[in-house]
């Protein structure tokens, strides 16, 4: 047994030098692969000279080129944009992990950040095209297909960052049920610098809209759409209203933001500065609707109900109760005549105040109406029916004002002829 073990041990001895020789050859060949040849000889016989340093590794070459021999900081591949150029358009293709879309969406979805950065979000090809036509300034476009960018006017895309992203990324950030594959970040439009459509300016009427305490984005968007359709010359939004450039308002407005001037976030003290001379302010007051089934059928009898609601809104309950019991006059509350909406109220430039459904019109709006000789406009409804939706009431009053102005223009032209 011992002899057998001795023979096995003797038989394995010659294998050690062979293994060592193989390790030596492997190391030699690996070292040879790292060398940079001076010339390359192809099987066809062609000889190609190699440039000095061409075989160096990129990281090593960069380290030697950098000062103090330090290797520069490498940028992760997920953060390195891939630049492409096609059909004269130069754009970046976002790689996995690119945070530019999420960073921008975080800003434009928050009203404080939106106002601080002065940027808005537009989604959809039609809305973006309307904005570009009106002179809005684009900053960045995120798109999933290059065809969507080619549909836009190329002269408007100079200096704009174009970033191609996956459709799934747009879908994650989109508020639309069916995303259209393109989002645009624009500078917040200035009504003074905008170029509104010529047809809209040609049909503009001496009719303004003032939004007061409108908090619902869908209602405000619908109201702006009605204002553009009726031919309003201007829309004023006081403080307390929802932001006109919120994505939900833009979606409900269907491009109305770029057809009629919109002045946002105004104090009531500044509102008269945006009204034409001799403008009369009329208040769309739904308070009278509650009194229809309780008191008289006369519009003039509805005023005390509005006074009662305003007193609760402005915390004057005790003073109001004393005044109602004694019949004393309330000096703090403006006294406005109530008029049916279909009677003539457009003999002078008119501004209509629309209040929110929850808080109604403010005391400041009634004071402005009183100072300009305006009235309360009442839309009669069937007894027992609650007040109309703010967007519906605004549409009725604006198109009624348009009808009255059209009839006045027809009478004037007929008398002139």
Walk me through what this model shows.
The radius of gyration is 37 Å and the shape is elongated. The chain has helices spanning 2-12, 15-33, 58-65, 100-108, 111-117, 125-133, 146-150, 167-173, 198-202, 217-230, 247-253, 287-291, 303-313, 317-326, 363-371, 390-416, and strands at residues 39-41, 47-49, 82-86, 89-93, 119-123, 138-143, 161-164, 182-187, 205-212, 232-238, 262-266, 280-284, 338-340, 350-355, 376-378. Helix 10 (217-230) packs parallel to helix 11 and helix 10 (217-230) runs parallel beside helix 16 (390-416). It contains 16 helices and 15 strands. Among the domains are: 82-191, 2-Layer Sandwich (60s Ribosomal Protein L30, Chain: A); 196-289 and 335-416, 3-Layer(aba) Sandwich (Alpha/beta knot), CATH 3.40.1280.10. The relative contact order is 0.09. The chain has 417 residues and is an alpha/beta fold.
Radius of gyration from the CA trace?
37 Å
CATH superfamily of the domain at 196-289 and 335-416: SPOUT methyltransferase, trefoil knot domain
* Residues in β-strands, percent: 15-25%
CATH class of the domain at 196-289 and 335-416: Alpha Beta
Number of strands: 15
- pLDDT below 50 for ≥5 consecutive residues: which ranges? 1-24, 54-69, 74-80, 288-321, 323-329
* CATH topology category name of the domain at 196-289 and 335-416: Alpha/beta knot
- Strand order in space, largest sheet: 11-10-9-14-12-15-13
Helix proportion range: 25-40%
From the spread of the alpha carbons, the general shape counts as elongated
What kind of sheet is the major sheet? 7 strands, parallel
Give the class from helix and strand content and strand pairing: alpha/beta
Specify the oligomeric state.
single chain
Average residue pLDDT: 78
User: What is the end-to-end distance?
Assistant: 138 Å
Figure out the total of helices: 16
* CATH architecture descriptor of the domain at 196-289 and 335-416: 3-Layer(aba) Sandwich
């Amino acid at each position: 047994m011992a002899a057998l073990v001795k023979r096995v041990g003797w038989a394995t001895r010659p294998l050690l030098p062979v293994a060592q020789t193989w390790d030596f050859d492997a190391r030699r060949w690996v070292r040879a692969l790292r060398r940079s040849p001076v010339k390359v000889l192809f099987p066809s016989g062609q000889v190609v000279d190699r440039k000095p340093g061409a075989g160096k590794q990129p990281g090593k070459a960069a380290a030697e080129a950098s000062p103090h021999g330090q290797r520069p900081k490498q940028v992760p591949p997920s953060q390195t944009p891939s630049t492409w150029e096609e059909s004269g358009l130069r754009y970046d293709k976002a790689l996995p992990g690119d945070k530019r879309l999420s960073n921008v969406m975080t800003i434009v979805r928050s009203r404080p950040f939106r106002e601080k950065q002065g940027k808005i979000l537009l989604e959809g090809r039609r809305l973006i095209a309307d904005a570009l036509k009106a002179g809005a300034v684009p900053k960045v476009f995120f798109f999933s297909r290059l065809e969507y960018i080619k549909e836009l006017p190329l002269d408007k895309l100079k200096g704009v960052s174009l970033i191609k992203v996956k459709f799934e990324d747009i879908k994650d950030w989109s508020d639309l049920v069916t995303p259209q594959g393109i989002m645009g970040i624009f500078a917040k439009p200035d009504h003074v610098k905008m170029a509104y459509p010529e047809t809209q300016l040609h049909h503009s009427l001496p009719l303004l809209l003032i939004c007061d305490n409108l908090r619902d984005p869908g209602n405000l968007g619908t109201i702006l759409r009605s204002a553009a359709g009726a031919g309003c010359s201007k829309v004023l939004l006081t403080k307390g209203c929802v932001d006109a450039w919120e994505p939900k308002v833009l979606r409900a407005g269907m491009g109305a933001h770029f057809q009629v001037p919109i002045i946002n976030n105004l104090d009531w003290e500044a509102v008269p500065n945006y009204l034409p001379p001799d403008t009369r302010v009329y208040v769309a007051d739904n308070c009278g609707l509650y009194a229809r089934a309780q008191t008289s059928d006369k519009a003039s009898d509805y005023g005390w109900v509005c006074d009662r609601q305003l007193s609760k809104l402005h915390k004057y309950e005790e003073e109001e109760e004393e005044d109602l019991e004694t019949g004393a006059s309330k000096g703090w509350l403006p006294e406005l005549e109530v008029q049916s909406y279909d009677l003539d109220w457009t003999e002078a430039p008119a501004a209509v105040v629309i209040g929110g459904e929850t808080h109604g019109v403010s005391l400041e709006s009634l004071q402005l109406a009183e100072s300009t000789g305006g009235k309360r406009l009442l839309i009669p409804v069937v007894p027992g029916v609650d007040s109309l939706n703010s967007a519906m009431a605004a549409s009725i009053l604006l198109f009624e004002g348009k009808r009255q102005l059209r009839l006045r223009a027809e009478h004037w032209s007929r008398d002139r002829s």
